[in-house]
Design a protein that fits this description.
The chain is α/β, with parallel strands linked by helices and about 500 residues long. The chain is built from 15 helices and twelve strands. Helix 13 links the parallel strand 8 and strand 9. The relative contact order is 0.13.
Length: about 500
């Protein structure tokens, strides 16, 4: 049946998403990529069909939140949202998977003779394609497979090689499974056994209770559909002021979420609101911020006046790729929220003083947390991480769950506690071991009073060396395995 031809690869792409939170059926990511690899290495026509169908199942479901982001957060037409959604899937399909289609002609002309070097090549090519996602359209590092090792015995790998190390293992095992698919049952069983061992649940981690700092996270849960109406400004302010009264009297640091107020830090409205806030606490908040004519999505320390500007903007939500060419040419692309500027990549940390003790904070806004190297560079000299976010534009998708897991990975990679303050959830306090100490559920309006440890934590191998080891290794192995594959004499078909 023709429908089976399209439905099966779509389902295999879809089941890969079930490996991520909130489903967390972790072995499925291996099966999903194994099917993709097996399909890619067959005849060209079937390969392309399977690739497209798999991509719509995988990227389509996993990044469906983009429609909500563009439609509501970008305040644009639903048709444009759908066009952008399909365009992104097409680009991810082309960049992430197509290199195997192009190169297999020479490298895999006799796929029945799969060897060690073939497996190395396929796994290494996939991790390099993953690397490209950090730069594509200013970066789309979403649904990185290595994240699924959270809460397993394998998550210790994050501190050594980062999440890329986990992804590399997944691609290599998936390559073995895909190349032995229906051909060598013994190898397939062995690989499946290895996968199950890697995914053994991790035992409960002890939480460091030394050098505790009292913090409060304000989660207002503002209705995103009314946020920019003129008559709604007062409601936002009153809600924040009401919540500020619930802050624990012993709190040393208060964190408000990303860009909750519908006006800029430099405005009279912001000054008036600031005067009405409690002034006995150090407050860090998200805010719109102007530098000249440039608008930034920023984090502000109201005590020191220090400002951090968001570096990584959401493609098609906060900015439009190739906008100089598109804005004005096509009225569709004149989106209200598409004129936000990128923050510089060399911004420093924030300072915070409590009882004559000085602390250094690594500030990150929303999408910044998805970029491992950005977090690593900003976090080398910090005591802890603050990540403010607005996850309302994820809608009721899996986006907020995945976003929270990414934050947990960053805490483990850098061996730092992390405070996450969001507009409507999930706000959380995460230990340096990735443990969620406290969490406020999505859709809840309130204040979460908690504690974090500020004790010095040693840098990890990853925070010192970065992601270069797995990617450079993959680059070397890709070329070596490709050359060896070309040189190996294949068995005669006669």
């Amino acid at each position: 049946m023709k429908i089976k031809r399209y439905l099966v690869p779509f389902i295999f792409g879809l089941i890969g998403i079930l490996s991520f939170a909130p489903f967390s059926i972790k072995p499925l990511i291996f099966l999903s990529y194994a099917y993709l690899i097996n399909g890619l290495l067959k005849n060209n026509k079937e390969s392309i069909i399977k690739l497209i169908c798999w991509s719509f199942g995988h990227w389509g479901f996993g990044m469906s939140w983009l429609i909500v982001s563009v439609y509501y957060y970008g305040n644009t037409h639903i048709l444009l949202a759908l066009v952008i959604f399909i365009l992104l899937i097409a680009i991810l399909t082309l960049v992430f998977s197509a290199p195997l289609l192009l190169l297999k002609i020479k490298l895999f002309n006799n796929i029945k003779y799969a060897n060690f070097y073939t497996i190395l090549y396929v796994g290494s090519m996939f991790i390099l394609n993953e690397w490209s996602m950090y730069f594509l359209l200013n970066g789309v590092p979403w649904l990185i497979p290595g994240v699924i090792f959270l809460d397993t015995i394998s998550q210790s790998l994050f501190r050594i090689l980062g999440v890329a190390g986990g992804s590399y293992i997944i691609y290599l095992l998936a390559a073995i499974l895909g190349l032995s698919w229906k051909k060598n049952k013994i190898i397939s069983v062995v690989v499946l056994a290895v996968i199950l061992i890697l995914l053994i649940p991790r035992s409960e981690e002890e939480i460091d209770k030394n050098n505790l700092l009292n913090i409060s996270i304000v989660q207002p849960s503002t209705n995103p559909f009314l946020k920019y109406e003129n008559n709604y400004k007062d409601k936002i302010e009153e809600n924040l002021l009401r919540l500020s009264k619930e802050i624990n009297t012993e709190t040393d640091l208060v964190i408000f979420p990303e860009a909750e107020l519908p006006y800029a830090y430099e405005s009279i409205e912001f000054s008036l609101f600031k005067e009405r806030l409690i002034n006995s606490k150090t407050i860090i908040t998200g805010s719109w911020h102007f530098e000249g004519s440039n608008l930034f999505n920023s984090m502000v320390n109201l005590d020191t006046g220090q400002i951090y500007n968001k570096q990584h903007l959401v493609p098609f939500g906060e900015y439009i790729p190739f906008i100089p060419s598109l804005r004005g040419l096509i009225s569709f692309f004149d989106m209200p929220m598409s004129n936000v500027s990128h923050g510089a990549n060399n911004q420093g940390t924030m300072n915070f003083t409590n009882n004559d003790q000085a602390f250094t904070i690594s500030p990150l806004i929303c999408y910044d947390i998805a970029f491992g190297n950005t977090v690593r560079k900003s976090n080398k000299s910090s005591n802890f991480i603050i990540n403010i976010s607005n996850d309302t534009w994820f809608g009721n998708s899996i986006g907020p769950y995945h976003h929270l897991d990414i934050a947990r990975v960053r805490a483990i990679e850098n061996n730092k506690w992390l405070i996450r303050a969001t507009n409507d959830g999930f706000s959380a306090v995460i230990s340096n071991k990735g443990v969620i100490v406290d969490k406020m559920e999505k859709g809840i309006s309130g204040v979460m009073n908690s504690r974090i440890s500020t004790r010095y934590t040693a840098p990890t191998a990853y925070s010192s060396g970065g992601y270069f080891i797995p990617y450079v290794l993959a680059l070397i192995l890709t070329f070596l395995s490709a050359i060896i594959n070309l040189c190996i004499k294949r068995p005669s078909s006669h």
